[in-house]
Design goal:
Pfam families: NAD_binding_9 (PF13454). By secondary structure, this protein is α/β, with parallel strands linked by helices. It has helices spanning 11-23, 69-78, 89-109, 164-168, 196-208, 238-246, 251-264, 270-276, 281-286, 290-299, 301-308, 313-325, 380-387, 427-430, 436-455; strands spanning 4-7, 29-32, 114-117, 121-126, 132-136, 140-144, 146-149, 172-173, 188-192, 213-218, 328-340, 344-350, 356-361, 363-366, 407-409, 415-421. It has 3 domains: 4-155 and 372-455, FAD/NAD(P)-binding domain (3-Layer(bba) Sandwich); 164-225 and 310-366, FAD/NAD(P)-binding domain; 238-304, no CATH class. Strands 8-14-9-10-11-12-13 form a 7-stranded mixed β-sheet. Strands 3-2-1-7-16-15 form a 6-stranded mixed β-sheet, covered by helices on one side. Strands 4-5-6 form a 3-stranded antiparallel β-sheet. Strand 4 and strand 5 (132-136) form a beta hairpin. Bound molecules: flavin-adenine dinucleotide (FAD). Residues 7-13, 32, 34, 36, 41-43, 53-55, 89, 120-121, 150-153, 196-197, 200, 381, 423-424, 434-436, 439 line the site of flavin-adenine dinucleotide.
Amino acid sequence: MADIAVIGGGAAGAAAFGELLAQYDAGTVHWIVGQQAPGRGVAYATGDDRHLLNVRASGMGVFHEHAEDFIQHASRQLGQVKGTDFLPRRLFGDFIQAQVGARIDAARRAGRSFRIHPGSAREVLARAEGGYAVRVGADRWLDVSRVVLAIGALSQRPLRTVSTTALAGGAYELDPWRLDRHPKPPRRIVVIGTGLTAVDTLLSAAVRWPHAELIAVSRHGLWPFTHSALPLAPYARQEELNQALLGSCGPAQMLRHVRRAMADAPETDWRSLVDGMRPINALLWQGMSHARRRQFLRHARWIWEAARHRMAPASGEAIHQWQEEGRLQVLASRVLDVDGTSPLQLTLRERATQLVTTIEADLVIQATGLDTAVAYGAHELLAQLLRDGLAVADPLQLGVSAQADGQLVDARGAPLPGLYAIGSLLRGNLWECTAMPEIRAAAHRLAVQLATAGRAGGPRESASEGS
Ligand SMILES: Cc1cc2nc3c(=O)[nH]c(=O)nc-3n(C[C@H](O)[C@H](O)[C@H](O)COP(=O)(O)OP(=O)(O)OC[C@H]3O[C@@H](n4cnc5c(N)ncnc54)[C@H](O)[C@@H]3O)c2cc1C
């Protein structure tokens, strides 16, 4: 039995499934896609064309091959687009579905075996004779030799400071993509968070409720920086900088290297330096001790996220214009408490002055970004995997413990044969692994690895494979 199950119907699952369809011929490839339309996941299910990709069109793709295909696909819908454009995410969702459809057609022609299963994977059990039994929905079982977990980030949990009264009242929205659940126009909306998800939430809310007052609150009150309209020249001494960063002993020294490089090359845009670090980000993270990683998360994560995951220029213009017009206010404050029903009362402590104030809002939307704290989430499958020792939570709650190739490890650090993850679950191991450029490269590598193992004849790899 050399079948494979890919679990998760988002972009990462689509990339893994499509790559396996092209490369894996040792058994059936199953794709368990969850409840939504396969291929789109959280990021590309939006129907709001104000929600833009935060990567230029030329950098977006699903599979390793056909790098230019997204630009051609988008041009057919929008007229001529340029590789430097930041396009609507909806278009990329359409593109993923078309690309997977093409892979399915090719797989049929080649006589490859595959199945697509609507519904959720609810259990993955290790079988005594090797391989796994995967339960889909209530009672459908699949016997496979390998499993690829592509389940994305967890659904947002409410902040600890939100009372049960506030949660029950209906004016606290935990899903920033479900503004449609609020038919009554709110007079004042508070969005908790100032990251990319918060930006999209505000872009939708401002149009949906044109008379609403908008407030965004986060600890530092910092928006993601914007991309430049056109690609920037690379930093001439990036290689040298990257070597120095790789030789550093922690985030503080890394920051000194970056600052020095910026001072030495004042003509270079700092964004080039950050982008030029992309190939070594995982290595930098892996080179840090647990204590250094913790230090980075506590002191530098907020600024790293804003600098590394930047927003499209058009999104930035809208946000900054509303701020200038006074329609949108940004508060650098900690949310101490959210209580009441209608309106909700938010108690905030301002970062600069430590002053505590209370404000009211008709609608509060939590947009605090990726949640990868698997030990605390309510994900049924992950909870079972943790319980059975088939997954171990990353010590910093950044997904699960895994090797560099995505193979999960048990509590002793020993690889779990045939059990892999891709995407957000691997943040603890790779840190930067959630954007499409990284996901498509990882999906390709994994498919090559599994196809090679499949061709070698063994239904299961040894426990040390991929180490
Ligand atoms: C709002 C937003 C915008 C983004 N914009 C960009 C961008 O412009 N460019 C870029 O490169 N990256 C972007 N990203 C990063 C993004 O994370 C990746 O591009 C990619 O969409 C991640 O896909 P995923 O499949 O890992 O996760 P998800 O999109 O979360 O998909 C996971 C899927 O698995 C399903 N699932 C969960 N559990 C199970 C189960 N037990 N059984 C079956 N199915 C299950 C879920 O329902 C979900 O559909 C963005 C992310 C977000 C959230």
